[in-house]
Amino acid sequence: MSDEARPRTIALVGPYLSGKTALLESILFATEAINRKGNTKEGNTVGDASAEARERQMGVELNVASTTFLDDTFHFLDTPGSVEFAQETFDAVLGSDLVVVVSEPDIERAKAVAPLIKFVEERGIPSLFFINKIDKLEGPVTAIVDALQEASGRALVLRQLPIVDSDSISGYVDLASGRGYSYKPNEASEGIDPPAVMADEIKDARFAMLEKMADFDDSLMEKLLEDDDPSNDDVFSNIAKMVAAGNIAPVMLGAAEFDHGVRRLLKALRHDTPAADITATRLGLDPSAEEAVCQVLKTYNLPQIGKLSMVRIFQGQLAEGAQLNGTRPSGLFDMMGQQTKKRPDAAMGDVVALGRMDDIDIGDTLAASGNAEPLPKADVLEPVYGLAIAAANRNDEVKLSGALSKLMEEDPSYVVEHNQDTHEMVLHGQGEIHLRVAIARLQNKSAVEVQTARPKIPYKEAIQKSVQQHGRFKRQTGGHGQFGDVHVEIKPLPRGSGFQFEDKIVGGVIPKTYIPAVQAGVREFLAKGPLGYPVVDISVKLYDGSHHAVDSSEIAFKTAGRIAMSEGMPKCSPVLLEPILAVEIYVPSDYTAKINQLISGRRGQILGFEAREGWPGWDVVSAQIPHSEMLDLIVELRSLTQGVGTYSASFDHLQELTGRLADQVLAEAQAEAAE
């Protein structure tokens, strides 16, 4: 198979509602892979095919569709648009030869593509921009391109100029060929002569395009300096070369809903998408090698089939029965949305699903030898939202555990935490919708109903003064009794010191064999202090006591230690401690002032801000915020920043909580305990 004939993989990325799924439908319809376009509202699209996607009318996981255009095979990766499902997008993008960034003709919405663009460019993946919904364009298209350029480190090259007819977009002029086209709803555009009134505008726009390209080609620069307009063939070949090198990203226009500009986009993809061989070389592989090397882009757990691992073959070829990393897949499958079809083999460039590869995960590199150099994988996103979950039916607890494991297989940005302080299972993810989808999947795929609640805050308590306390446990029965007698000194320690136990017994008044039991009794009490929370930063010194030669036992001294603590601790002026998190918030600079207000409104302390390294036009705001104020922070943050703001957080310290807020926390805890 020639380099050009190998299948190529295109990732469709873009913000929520940018129209990626509509674009995929239009592509499949234009290439006759489907005979009727579906739409998201009717729930009959190839993409967004899962039950959870249908219910929400939005993409929630990767969908794959393949088609042929002018005898070339293309695999399209339709990625979710919502930032809450960005892990799916980042994992999938790594398998592409080129990324199409789908954007709306809205300057404000253009900011939303910044994280996607950053990810693609950092990994050297070629890109092309498609401004969708061009029928809704207001103002010059160059303003949209300029807004997108702010987010991109590549030179964005406008390939097309819209033709405006009576305040509506009726077609476009291709600046590379100089030809005009008139849009025809649900049909191929009709070739026309460019409007004479646009002659100067076309000339200027073409020169601007060539000028940007000339920054990467000396011969082209010489031609421009000599006022020598390069041939169309030279322009097309230069575009393809520069796209593959990551120098430029062409910008094309259209309206997927009406099939406008879609066939021209396909022709650009056919011409400009690097061949699979070039991608293999970019990744450090040998395109001529026979050994199969592929990477896992996505995991599906389907009720009828079991585990499917979607992979991109970067090198060599696969045949049914072949081993990868020591495991033989149960089969090779093509996927079209949620539909699967078995196939006997797959070649370099193909995207296929492998059946029942139980021990492999998303991002893993697979090879026939099992020892290929690992390909770059996407970092797992830090969780920013959490819900406490429990099986609605206690008999489903084991079932829930297995279902959660499958959930994390499908999307590694889900994290399950068993909080020892609050005795809760907490499911963490990328936002409220992300977790609601997870709960729906548990129900739909594993038939497990779960209850959810706001996670409890892991408050602690400490003491403010020292006390000496006597604790005695004496019980007389018909036979041996129980006797334990201790004297302890309870003292506060500096914050962050934890728990210290001192044995100061002299003269054997308490035999050494019983002292660990006293410590155990003390520890047992500290798990829940007078305020109802674990006690920290405390010293307990055992300095005196007595024992009985017959009735003393470990259990008696353990009980005596617990009694001493239960009677002494309320005298030590216990105080509530709330956890404070160190938070870094990442936002475009335009929103920094709003973020300062957000932090202040959550009892946070702003520590400062600085430019975000490697992200022009972005800031990092550093702050300390109480844990109790963090649950829905991401919701408000995204609302203030067009969905692009995010944060990272880690525990910093414990801080005393007093006054009305402390009373409220304690009252709620008492009410819960009384239920």
How would you explain this protein's 3D organization?
It is a single chain. With 675 residues, the protein is of the alpha+beta class. The chain folds into five domains: 8-274, P-loop containing nucleotide triphosphate hydrolases (Rossmann fold, 3-Layer(aba) Sandwich), CATH 3.40.50; 293-367, Elongation Factor Tu (Ef-tu), domain 3 (Beta Barrel), CATH 2.40.30; 385-451, Alpha-Beta Plaits (2-Layer Sandwich), CATH 3.30.70.870; 461-572, Ribosomal Protein S5, domain 2 (2-Layer Sandwich); 578-674, Alpha-Beta Plaits. It has 18 helices and 32 strands. A seven-stranded mixed beta sheet has the order 2-3-1-4-5-11-6, sandwiched between helices. The chain is elongated, with a radius of gyration of 32 Å. The model has no long low-confidence stretch (mean pLDDT 93).
Estimate what percentage of residues fall within beta strands: 25-35%
Provide the structure class.
alpha+beta
**CA-to-CA gap between the ends?**
71 Å
Question: So, the CATH homologous superfamily of the largest domain?
Answer: P-loop containing nucleotide triphosphate hydrolases
C-alpha geometry = elongated
Runs with pLDDT <50, length 5+?
none
Rg on CA atoms, Å: 32 Å
Helix content: 25-40%
Number of structurally distinct domains: 5
Note the main sheet.
7 strands, mixed
